[in-house]
């Protein structure tokens, strides 16, 4: 074990006693009977006369009631007094220097969605997010979204130079809106470098769960806020979904078939809360639909034997898809992919479910793709072609830990690009392409604004590590 490197050590007064205080190069601050790691626990500092105040988060002691849901962290303040003015100035310089070297954000723009999920986002912001940001001396501007696409429209004209990141206190939907808004700016190359953070306060919370679970932390607003304050970042793949010149940018998932039907059609039971998904899953399995169609995909290394080779007509489809993946405008048009130089395979329906995933968790309770990585340049494809109804019920119950992917009824592989050619359902009533929890296309019309794409062929390409997220640890 290497000896501890001390940055500064001196006698101080703490709790009325004279004791030693030490700051190490590893960021450990010790004083009397307490010890804090600046990187992980310290939020902010205050200095007044010879008094030094350290605002931090610590593990709650057993039996203590704490306000952070799903978290054992509590906010706590530690203080000590320097015995001389010279010592005080040295402590101030050394502590501010160390904290400043961590690259933490100083200014944030915060979207709050008061209408998502159980409509608790405003309360989550006031009770969990704001106190931590205040303790960390982080300046923020807050905007409550008023309707769908409000965040997307606002971020398209937002002066990003004023902020070190954008935070969404919401489910996944507002974060996806922000992503699309950034990529539809003319300065998208710089705009997409803006770090994005998410605090779980919606229905799904798949991105937040994936990030926090990767470091073994609970999916709580406080832990998510701390990961933003600490300033660690990771890259995230972005999928471009194209149909002609129409684009949509996804960071979570695309579903067609059973999963899409459950996600979207269960909205009519929204009064049931999250139980609507389980209830409607039973209804859909009992009246199981199968979908005609075809998927054409470029497999990741190791999956080249899955599926069948393309026929001539499908080879022409791939060749023609290349031109439609480009954009004539100055906004982002998707990754440049030489499709003709790739290996392509196909799978013909009927399908029960086609599910593409960019991160492991689809919701807080659904580990859809346990092998998914944030920035590997691939999407995880989960296929269910034919499966007895009782087996489907078992598969749904296994999605809380990802063990459904080990079932012989599930095909699980990684792909770089995919062309989805959706067909009609066996009962003639279904047909939805669901992207990040929103309807991208549907076969039948409903009241309200039409979806952005037709229920027809779409192409999905991955741009490796295009976006940046605040993360609990450096990935």
Explain what this protein looks like in three dimensions:
This protein is elongated. The two termini are 26 Å apart. α3 runs parallel beside α4 and α8 crosses α9. The model has no long low-confidence stretch (mean pLDDT 91). It has eleven helices and 24 strands. It is of the alpha+beta class and 475 residues long. The strands form four sheets. Strands 12, 13, 14, 15, 16, 17, 20, 21, 22, 23 and 24 form an eleven-stranded antiparallel sheet that branches. The protein has a seven-stranded antiparallel sheet with strand order 4-3-2-1-7-6-5, sandwiched between helices. It has a four-stranded parallel sheet with strand order 9-8-10-11, with helices on both faces.
């Amino acid at each position: 074990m290497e000896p501890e490197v001390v940055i500064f050590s001196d006698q101080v007064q703490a709790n009325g006693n004279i004791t030693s205080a030490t700051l190490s190069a590893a960021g450990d601050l010790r004083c009397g009977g307490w010890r804090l790691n600046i990187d992980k626990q310290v939020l902010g500092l205050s200095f007044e006369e010879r008094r030094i105040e350290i605002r931090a988060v610590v593990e709650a002691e057993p039996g203590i009631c704490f306000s952070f849901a799903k978290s054992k962290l509590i906010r706590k303040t530690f203080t000590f007094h320097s015995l001389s003015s010279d010592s005080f100035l040295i402590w101030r310089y050394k502590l501010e220097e160390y904290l400043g070297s961590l690259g933490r954000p100083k200014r944030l723009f915060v979207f709050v969605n008061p209408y998502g999920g159980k409509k608790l986002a405003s309360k989550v912001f006031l009770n969990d997010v704001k106190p931590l940001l205040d303790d960390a001396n982080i300046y923020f501007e807050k905007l409550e979204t008023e309707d769908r696409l409000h965040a997307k429209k606002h971020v398209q004209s937002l002066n990003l130079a004023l902020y070190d990141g954008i935070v969404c206190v919401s489910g996944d939907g507002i974060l996806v809106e922000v992503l699309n808004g950034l990529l539809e700016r003319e300065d998208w190359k710089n705009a997409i470098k803006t770090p994005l953070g998410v605090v779980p306060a919606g229905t799904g919370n798949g991105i937040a769960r994936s990030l926090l679970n990767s470091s073994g932390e609970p999916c709580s607003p406080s832990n998510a806020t701390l990961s933003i304050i600490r300033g660690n970042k990771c890259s995230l793949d972005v999928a471009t979904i194209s149909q002609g010149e129409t684009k949509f940018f996804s960071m979570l998932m695309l579903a067609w078939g059973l999963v899409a039907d459950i996600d979207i059609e269960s909205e009519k039971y929204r009064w049931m809360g999250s139980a609507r998904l389980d209830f409607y899953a039973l209804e859909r399995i009992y009246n199981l639909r199968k979908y005609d169609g075809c998927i054409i995909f470029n497999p990741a290394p190791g999956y080249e034997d899955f599926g069948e080779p393309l026929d001539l007509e499908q080879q022409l489809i791939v060749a023609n898809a290349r031109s439609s993946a480009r954009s004539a405008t100055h906004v982002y048009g998707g990754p440049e992919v030489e499709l003709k130089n790739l290996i392509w395979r196909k799978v013909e329906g009927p399908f029960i479910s086609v599910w593409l995933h960019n991160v492991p968790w689809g919701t807080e309770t659904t580990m859809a793709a346990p092998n998914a990585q944030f920035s590997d340049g691939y999407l995880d494809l989960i296929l269910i072609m034919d499966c007895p109804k009782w087996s489907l019920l078992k598969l749904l119950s296994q999605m809380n830990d990802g063990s459904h992917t080990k079932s012989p009824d599930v095909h699980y592989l990684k792909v770089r690009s995919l062309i989805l050619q959706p067909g009609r359902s066996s009962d003639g009533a279904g047909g939805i392409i669901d992207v990040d929890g929103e309807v991208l296309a549907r076969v039948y019309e409903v009241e309200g604004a039409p979806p952005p794409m037709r229920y027809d062929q779409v192409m999905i390409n991955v741009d490796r590590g295009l976006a940046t997220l605040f993360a609990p640890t450096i990935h």
